[in-house]
Amino acid sequence: MMETARSLPSIWRVINLWIVWIVLIFLLLPILIVIPSAFNTESTVTFPIHGFTLKWFTNAVSRAEFIRSFFLSVSVSVVATLISLAAGGLAAYAMVRRSFRGKGLLELVLLSPLIFPSIVLAIALTMVLGSLGLLRTFPGLVVAHTIVTLPYAVRAMIGTFHSIDPSLEEAAAVLGARRIFVWREVLVPLLRPGLLAAAIFSLIMSFDEFAVSFFVVGPGMTTLPIELFNYTEFYSDPTICAVSTILIILSALAVVAIERSVGLAKLMS
Amino acid sequence: MMHGKIAIAALSVHAVVKSFGGARVVKDVSLAIKPGEFISLLGPSGCGKTTLLRMIAGLELPDSGTIALGGKDITSVPVWERNIGVVFQNYALFPHMTVAQNIAFGLRTRKTPKSAIETKVRDALKLVRLDGFGPRSTEKLSGGQKQRVALARALVTDPKLLLLDEPLGALDRKLREQMQVELKMLQREIGVTTLMVTHDQEEALTLSDRIAVMSDGRILQDDSPREIYERPRDAFVADFIGMSNFMKGRVVDLDGNKQLAVSENVILKLPPDARDATEISVFLRPEKLTLAELPGAAGSSLPGRIVHVSYSGSVTHCFVDVGLQKPLTVLITNRSNYDHAGPRIGEPIWVHWDARNIVML
Amino acid sequence: MTTAIKDTPLSILLIPASVIGCLMVLSAALMLGISVLDSFPGWTTLTFEHYREFFDNRFLLQAGLRTISLAAVVTLVCLLFGYPVAWFLVLGRSRIAHLVFLAVLTPLIVSIVVRMFGWTILLGNEGLLNKLMVGLGIVAAPVQMMRSFWTVAVGLVHIFLPFMILSLTSTLGRIDPSLAEAAATLGSRPVRSFFQIILPLSAQGIATGSIIVFCLATGVYLTPFWLGRGNVTVLATAIQQQILETGDWPTGAASAMLLTFFTLLLVAGYSVLIRRLWRR
Question: Is the backbone of residue C30 left (phi > 0), alpha (psi -120 to 50) or beta?
């Protein structure tokens, strides 16, 4: 084939393609390898597996602390995401459409957790939450996770508001729509893809959050990643693989659902 | 003067075919351009004209057929070895470079000495009347200025062929008309062989020495602008360029004169050189028709009623219902600024014409 | 003209975010405050002693240097491997490119804990890679790969590569394809066009992607903790030990502040450099 302007010469193209394949294997292998390991009969995590059993799944779902921490993680991330979306969405709207004093400062503060090393945030929050008596409590965890997820929500929402033509709102207003109505009927539908992207990102960030939670959690109030980490401190059997497999299946379902409804690629770009 | 020798075509395209994912976009196109000629590829969007231009530039590879530049086959020569200047529709100026750096880009790839680059860039800027714009950023230029930078960048390397892809499409009307004149003068001055792709018939008519009308991947007619307008070979060309009044009918012989029977009672005179055919289509350009209060010669006038008047400054288009399928369009020149008694809607009127102006398809 | 929506009071829009923002500022201020106390809790004077202590404490200083080099290595690797993938995603408009994009996004959605565990299965002493190497006779006995700097780096690249690719894809996707074509018609070969046109125009994406990855990588805690298992101490784990185990809050806070300052300094320097290199 002839070289055209946009494609690099064939040798470069071949190298490029190889890198793509290597990256794909690199990205997917450590995730996929967990699944067969969960069915291994051996009581250590090895690969290839020696026999087929479901006992690790039974063990996983029968451990009360896993179930408890899973539901804690889910409820913390959902509540934190909702707060982040509401607070971040309103602020992003103000920052895109209004001019006010201290706008730059507010944006800097809200986005700062993106730049600050998370350990810094963890320590600082531990002190603040400690002095408020919120350590080892559900509200404390929610506050911590909201701070971690807020920058992602704000960033995504600022991008979305920028992409919406302000004249649409004006047109709705000219047609006599009231404030609440404009929000509900015009802005929210237009914002939906952006909101969804922000929500997904924020849910993932919160569900995976480790460093900050590590300081904030306590007995009976532990999120799933930390519970799993604690388990591996004492056991090395494939129970974690079983839990991971369940999480992978849930993630895969989420990916398929998103891909079906709006398209993951469209959402993230 | 060629002294009887056959001139080597500056560009010759022979039997070129191109498909994209099963859809044939360019179907067996052949075309030759003489040195120094300005030719336009004119057609609606999706007719394959841009694909043809891209194949000539080397940005696409034809499925079959050959492309020769100055007698040398370049079908499989990569773009960067062709030395064909291209002005892209959106200009494609490098946004991270100044005007001068943009123009110098092609010279630097050809390892031109530094001192020569400076002079050439200065000359190129002068040529497109942008003296002193060298150090400016391209992003703050107006549309017309960007256009000129793109032109200077394409011309500075003395290309064997200049390709223009809808070069004036992004400009507003006034600027476009002004740039048309400039472009044509510049092209004549340098004498560079030029191929322009456009969907704007007016642009093609004013700029070109020759127009190739394309539709659905084929060249329908390749002629001078005058021939294309006055003697279009088929209904598509006639319809695409300018306005036309089409009529269809049977050819009948009356006292040795060929006549066109459009309907029971409408029988029109045909020009003396009319072919023998049974069913034919003919057309008349609106400016070849005139309005009158009295009947004219039988067979080259029809009575009717004005159904719509469209005033556009220098001219007015009148639509006259003469009992055919569609009203006839008549173009009248607004010669006076004091006589406001122009045609009125509902007015009964006669449409006259000279039978020699009838074009048969 | 004022419209209904523009009349929504600014305060309603800003109060929720401001409350959270204040909490963040308060946290940062509190930490800055604690870092200059002689001891905490229960303090008597203000001092910069703990900042000096950081540089005297070999453990902390080494952890700090390790953190920066780890973040730098991870950023570089993400850039080198992310760029070709982003390039492929932007150029290929095929179904394959779409599937590759999905595959790149998938790790983002899978919990980091799961991924850490996957790496353990792959790289552990009993892991797949060791079994392969022993089986193929490349090595005689399993190689200790866990608990090393490079394993942690691999784990971090796995986490941050999608971020880099997303950032590069959005910039590369905005580059007008006709620019490369224009360069080609001006006699420029593809490799030259890449270095003269594409690379400078993607500088913004390179800068954004690198900064995001670098900043996130300096703060990582779980990956060095899990894959390093006490053997790869980064500043985050060192600070955590300093505070939770030694109870030395001021030194921990001072180390955290230093890490922040240094990161911000590097980021600022880096973005200036990128802009200098390509004037945009």
Answer: alpha
- Between CA C108 and CA B132 the distance in angstroms is 52
Burial readout C203-242 (b: 16 or more C-beta within 10 A, e: otherwise): bbbbbbbbbbbbbbbbbbbbbbbbbbeeebbbbbbbbbbb
Q: What residues of C are in contact with residue B89 (Cβ under 8 Å)?
A: 178
Radius of gyration of chain B, Cα coordinates, nearest whole angstrom = 25
Tell me the pLDDT band of C7, cut-offs 50, 70 and 90: low
C199: DSSP letter: H
Q: Which value, to the nearest 10 degrees, does the dihedral of the CA atoms of residues C249, C254, C257, C261 take?
A: -170
CB contact under 8 A, C117 and A34: yes
Residues whose CB is less than 8 angstroms from the CB of residue A2 and which lie 6 or more positions away in sequence, other chains included: B61, B76, B78
SS (H, E, C) chain B: CCCCCCCCCCEEEEEEEEEECCEEEEEEEEEEECCCCEEEEECCCCCCHHHHHHHHHCCCCCCEEEEEECCEECCCCCHHHCCEEEECCCCCCCCCCEHHHHHHHHHHHCCCCHHHHHHHHHHHHHHCCCCCCCCCEHHHCCHHHHHHHHHHHHHCCCCCEEEEECCCCCCCHHHHHHHHHHHHHHHHHHCCCEEEEECCHHHHHHHCCEEEEEECCEEEEEECHHHHHHCCCCHHHHHHCCCCEEEEEEEEEECCEEEEECCCCCEEECCCCCCCCCEEEEEECHHHEEEECCCCCCCCEEEEEEEEEEEECCEEEEEEECCCCCCEEEEEECCCCCCCCCCCCCCEEEEEECHHHCEEC
What stretches of A98-221 show up as alpha helix (H) in DSSP?
103-115, 118-131, 138-163, 166-174, 179-181, 188-208, 211-216
- CB contact, 8 Å: C186 with chain A? no
CB contact under 8 A, A5 and B79: yes
How far apart are the CA of B111 and the nearest CA of chain C, in angstroms?
A: 10
Nearest to A147 among C24, C235, C240 (CB): C24
Distance (Å, whole) CA C220 – CA C67: 9
Judged against a pLDDT cut of 80, whether residue A182 lies above it is answered with no
Where is mean pLDDT largest: A9-18, A41-50, A123-132, C184-193? C184-193
Q: Please give, one letter per residue, the 3-state secondary structure of C147-190.
A: CCHHHHHHHHHHHHHHHHHHHHHHHHHHCCHHHHHHHHHCCCCH
pLDDT tens sequence across A186-245: 777 777 878 888 888 888 889 888 888 888 887 778 899 888 888 888 887 888 889 989
The distance from CA B300 to its chain's CA centroid, rounded to whole angstroms, is 31
Q: Are B57 and B82 in contact (CB under 8 A)?
A: yes
Q: Is A10 exposed, middle or buried (0-12, 13-18, 19+ CB in 10 A)?
A: exposed
From CA C253, how far away is CA C255, in angstroms rounded? 5
Tell me what ipTM this predicted complex has: 0.85
